[in-house]
Here is the input.
Amino acid sequence: MKFSNIYKLAKKGDVDSQYSLGSMLHEGNELEQDYEESFKWLLKAAKQGHLIAQYNVGYMLHRAEGVIEDNETAFSWFSKAAERGLAFAQNYLGIMYRTGVGVNEDFEEAFIWFSIAAESGLAEAQCNLGSMYLDGDGVPESLSDGAHWVDLAYKQGNEEAAEMINEYELWDDVNDWYK
Amino acid sequence: MGKVTYRELPDDHPLFKRGWVVATVRRPIKNDKKPSKDKSVVNSSKEDNK
Here is the structure.
């Protein structure tokens, strides 16, 4: 669809067009990159319930892309998308709980959200969950469980997982899990 | 407070256009505080899965 048509539909309130326009402005490929305009359109789509837009708005608020940083509101948008099952948002919610950004630090909550996202196969969430086990944050310390989750991410080609296996010296523990 | 690392999603990602990221967080590992290799403290879930 041509940009002019997307723009017209977006202005009329079409949620998919609002999302497309916001994404195009963020990407800066077909249109000149403009984070402020991107945020404006993605927020409209998010308010209408567009799942990916809700994640994107949360991210832009958290990273101050085109908008003043507001981690409490970012947390609220991530929560909406996480409750609806988006693994990327579930993972980010876990990060906010673990780091205490936008919400009070709560390792148990972080563990829950990382677990949900990791079970769905998101490699980064698997690393995050593995890290919780390895550090004993929100869960009793467990090398074997930590190694297991990091290994699942590693098998997906995740570079962070490879780093973790080396740094925590998990090669034996990864192998032990499958014995 | 852990260190957050961001990775840009690939251009052909099924959900996101180019320019979005996914994040990981972990505490910096200290040489004198690596996880205990004492298997007695290891959670028994591995055995449960047998």
